[in-house]
């Protein structure tokens, strides 16, 4: 066998087939290729890195032989101690032959030199033959092919498609293999032209099948090479570079490039572009003088060589880049022509500048008009009206320019996105005074949706709420312990107050239409903030209900509104009732993981109340921390909010007053003993009627509640 070592592989050349079977031989013959099973193998080393490198640049370390007979031996291979990288690359040069022959001594170590799966094929020859290549010790792979034919005339010369000859791929990472041959009929039917079967591993393209091989393949004088992969070490480039003492791609001036081995652990080196030689030697990569080789240079006139590159230029009187694939070198034009061309060019430039100036002026005027038109089409007038109603004048509300918002969001960078939805995207913004705000950018293209977006345009740049939403704190176990019952009751009171403010204290009543735990945000002091007004509607003062397309979230959606499309303030009351049930039970509004009768929290809560099973469904923390009578009162209020008919539900003002009263009674000692006793009927302290004395109340209570109404898209980005 002969072996060639290339930059990425070792090629073994076998003189005979690996196994054979015939009638007078065993029916099944096996041949094994494994560590220690091949004796010393003749070695032929060929360096393929550069054609001229073998002549000009050194192949081996200083003082080491770079040949064994007619075979080149480049480093990291070597024949003497100190001349090879490690024992894996040791070559034995046997001088008893003439010329001397190179051997891998004592054995081919396949753990270091696995068979290449991309450069070899498993080949089988025969007309009554099946062959299998498998792991040496019954391992994890097995592959093979079948070759059949009835007569010599049916075999196609040069074809290994299964008629007389077949081939198949080598599994990846093979380090040892066992070849087994079988003959179905002992070659009796094809004896006259194919008495034997053959199977072997060979380099792709080195064996060409001949019909004559069926009769007498063994006596042919031929070689069937096998390619083995090799690489340095068992680390990739990034890992190997950490230990510069063992790293071998270290030619000076970064003249070498490291490549990760594709088919086994380790890496290999090559010279950088513009250099040639042995990249494994400390100074093995030398500059290529492209100017001395016309096939390497693109220059048509002058060529200047640099370290690792070259430069083309033109002789005096010529112009161009000097390259054959570029503008080349052309004679320069006369001075007069240059002056005329220069004058014409300057005149054209002046003319173009004048036209551009006029064009820019016209575009600016057109842009101003277009800006005014867009402002009107996209709800600008409606915005001014809303701002005027809300604050008395437009000037009292801070309006940011597009550039200011762009700067605050780092040009709307992806890492600033807090949430996304159908109507817009919410970004985290940082103002020049270092205030952190949330900024909502509309994605609306439908003109019919402009009013809906304007509903929440009043506070599109708003306070950044740091403690997430109520849903996370109720249903996330890591937050659950952070919401004791008094805090849950406080959140309910603040949310009810905010909704009452929207219904009764604004100049035009607002129905939120999407009250849910994810839209209740909590600041650093756990103050509740009602958010996400993307679905909200303004209710004209002369109307008590609106007919709209149904919007909302399943589990919170008012069933009366769902069936009739008639939106009223009582729709928010129903959604708030579901929110109260969430706070009491700790259960989600809608969950398909629960039994059928428990999936809808509102229905389950009401039925449990009717069956006198309230304390069976309450959250354990609520039961532990809450007062029995207080919990009963709040549960009854929740049940009233969840009435199917809107007219039977209380208003948000009544709900807020009742919750505030229950919370105020909590401060008195007798509340802990018996919330239902007559002593609690007239408690000292501020009455909630002061805050909800009338629809147009201007009291300070509403001013504080108003601060709890914000716009947010942290949940779904609307």
From TrEMBL:
It comes from the Eukaryota. It is found in: Membrane. The keyword Transferase applies. Keywords: ATP-binding, Disulfide bond, EGF-like domain, Glycoprotein, Kinase, Membrane, Nucleotide-binding, Repeat, Serine/threonine-protein kinase, Signal, Transferase, Transmembrane, Transmembrane helix. One of its GO terms (molecular function) is protein serine/threonine kinase activity. Residues 287-324 form the EGF-like domain. It catalyses: L-seryl-[protein] + ATP = O-phospho-L-seryl-[protein] + ADP + H(+); L-threonyl-[protein] + ATP = O-phospho-L-threonyl-[protein] + ADP + H(+). The chain crosses the membrane at residues 340-362. Residues 412-671 form the Protein kinase domain. GO terms for biological process: cell surface receptor signaling pathway. Residues 1-21 form the signal peptide. Gene3D superfamilies: Laminin, Phosphorylase Kinase, domain 1, Transferase(Phosphotransferase) domain 1. It is a single-pass type I membrane protein. Its main location: membrane. One of its GO terms (cellular component) is plasma membrane. CDD domains: EGF_CA. This is Protein kinase domain-containing protein. It comes from Fagus sylvatica (Beechnut).
């Amino acid at each position: 066998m002969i072996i060639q070592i290339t930059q990425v592989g070792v090629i073994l050349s076998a003189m005979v087939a690996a196994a054979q079977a015939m009638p007078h031989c065993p029916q099944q013959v096996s041949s094994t290729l494994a560590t220690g099973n091949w004796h010393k193998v003749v070695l032929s080393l060929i360096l393929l890195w550069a054609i001229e490198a073998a002549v000009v640049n050194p192949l081996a370390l200083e003082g080491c032989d770079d040949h064994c007979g007619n075979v080149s031996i480049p480093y990291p291979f070597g024949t003497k101690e100190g001349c090879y990288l490690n024992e894996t690359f040791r070559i034995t040069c046997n001088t008893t032959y003439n010329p001397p022959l190179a051997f891998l001594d004592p054995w081919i170590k396949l753990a270091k030199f696995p068979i290449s799966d991309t450069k070899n094929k498993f080949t089988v020859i025969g007309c009554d033959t099946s062959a299998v290549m498998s792991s040496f010790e019954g391992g994890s792979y097995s592959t093979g092919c079948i070759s059949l034919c009835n007569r010599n005339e049916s075999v196609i010369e040069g074809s290994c498609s299964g008629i007389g000859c077949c081939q198949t791929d080598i599994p990846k990472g093979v380090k040892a293999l066992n070849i087994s041959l079988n003959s179905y009929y002992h070659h009796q039917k094809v004896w006259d032209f194919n008495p034997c079967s053959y199977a072997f591993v060979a380099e792709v393209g080195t064996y060409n099948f001949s019909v004559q091989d069926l009769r007498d393949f063994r006596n042919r004088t031929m070689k069937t090479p096998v390619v083995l992969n090799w690489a340095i070490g068992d680390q990739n480039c990034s890992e190997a570079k950490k230990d510069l003492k063992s790293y071998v791609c270290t030619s000076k001036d970064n003249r070498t490039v490291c490549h990760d081995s594709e088919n086994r652990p380790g890496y290999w080196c090559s010279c950088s572009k513009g250099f040639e030689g042995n990249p494994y030697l400390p100074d093995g990569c030398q500059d290529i003088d492209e100017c001395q080789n016309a096939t390497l240079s693109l220059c048509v006139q002058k060529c200047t060589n640099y370290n690792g590159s070259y430069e083309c230029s033109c002789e005096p009187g010529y112009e161009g880049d000097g390259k054959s694939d570029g503008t080349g070198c052309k004679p320069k034009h006369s001075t007069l022509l240059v002056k005329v061309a220069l004058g014409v060019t300057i005149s054209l430039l002046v003319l173009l500048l004048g036209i551009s100036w006029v064009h820019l002026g016209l575009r600016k005027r057109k842009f101003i008009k277009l800006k005014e038109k867009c402002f009107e089409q996209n709800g600008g007038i409606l915005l001014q009206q809303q701002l005027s109603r809300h604050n008395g004048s437009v000037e009292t509300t801070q309006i940011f320019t597009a550039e200011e918002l762009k700067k605050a969001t780092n040009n709307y960078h992806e890492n600033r996105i807090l949430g996304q939805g159908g109507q817009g995207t919410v970004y985290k913004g940082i103002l020049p005074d270092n205030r952190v705000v949330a900024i909502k950018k509309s994605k609306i293209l439908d003109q019919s949706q402009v009013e809906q977006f304007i509903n929440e345009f009043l506070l599109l740049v708003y306070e950044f709420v740091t403690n997430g939403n109520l849903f996370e704190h109720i249903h996330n176990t890591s937050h659950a312990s952070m919401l004791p019952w008094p805090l849950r009751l406080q959140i309910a009171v603040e949310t009810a107050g905010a909704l009452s403010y929207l219904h009764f204290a604004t100049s035009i009543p607002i129905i939120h239409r999407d009250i849910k735990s994810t839209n209740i945000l909590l600041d650093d002091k756990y103050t509740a903030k009602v958010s996400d007004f993307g679905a909200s509607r303004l209710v004209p003062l002369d109307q008590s209900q609106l007919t709209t397309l149904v919007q909302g979230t399943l589990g919170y959606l008012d069933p009366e509104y769902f069936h009739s499309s008639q939106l009223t303030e009582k729709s928010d009351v129903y959604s708030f009732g579901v929110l109260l049930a969430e706070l009491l039970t700790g259960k989600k509004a809608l969950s398909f993981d629960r039994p059928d009768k428990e999936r809808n929290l509102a229905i389950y809560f009401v039925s449990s109340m009717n069956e006198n099973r309230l304390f069976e469904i309450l959250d354990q923390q609520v039961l532990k921390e809450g007062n029995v009578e207080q919990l009963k009162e709040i549960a009854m209020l929740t049940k009233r909010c969840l009435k199917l008919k809107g007219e039977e539900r209380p208003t948000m003002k009544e709900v807020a007053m009742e919750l505030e009263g229950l919370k105020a009674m909590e401060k008195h000692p007798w509340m802990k003993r018996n919330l239902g006793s007559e002593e609690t009927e007239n408690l000292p302290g501020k009455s909630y009627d002061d805050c909800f004395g009338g629809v147009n109340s201007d009291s300070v209570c509403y001013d504080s509640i108003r601060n709890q109404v914000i716009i947010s898209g942290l949940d779904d980005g609307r």
